[in-house]
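Quick one: structure tokens for this chain, please?
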Amino acid sequence: MPELPEVEVVRGGLEAFLPGRTVAFARVLHPRSVRRHPAGPDDFQTQLPGRTFAVPRRRGKFLWLPFADGDALVAHLGMSGQFRVDDPDVPLLPHTRIVLGFAEGPQLRFVDQRIFGGLWLSPGGAELPSDLAHIAPDLFEDGTDLDALAQSIRRRRSAIKRVLLDQTVVSGIGNIYADEALWLARVHPETPADRMSLERIRRVLEAARGVMADALAQGGTSFDRLYVNVNGSSGYFSRSLQAYGREGEPCSRCGSPIRRVVFMNRSSHFCPGCQLS
């Protein structure tokens, strides 16, 4: 699933296109892509026309597109969801699931090969959709207090990586950037959070913010064509990864082979030589 940098890249691409545009029509090409819209595809298609988009918003990995009337279109990208801005005469890409048209200019198309993502209307959700109210602020939001967050994390007995992945604690960090932050901070992913000093936890948080900022500057992390910006371009931060996906390769810091272990039904990568418990 795209993490904070990838979603922010998409949000920025949408911000350059959407604000002030009024929906002329909405067409649902696969009902599963609006399964979280309770009234169904036909209602989705009739509810959107006439609504004018405001500036797209994001919290952590979660994206929503506010309307000027106070409602919002919530977007869950899942594993393969993409927004594409294409002229109406450009043929639809395979796996295009939803098309939004405007009075003139390009269309906004939602493409999703695996159909794990989707769109739905959130009444009154322009400021923060109710579906996302349980999601914690991310490390880039104004007012995020790293000291208070470190104290909250230190009260938890779970492994530090598990805590970083908990979107109700701090949002936006997924498997890739958790591995990278822990490598940068020299912390073993299975270290219990309550056995870490506040200074060490803060160092992990600062590492996470730093590595995600670097990824954002490089357009995010793309391993295949399933993650792209609205113009179809891929991110290239994968070339800068130090731990994730580098099983067996020498650690660039100490030379020990990077290890991969199964963690929460996914892969966890770390250096056994310099990431200490």
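The chain has six helices and ten strands.
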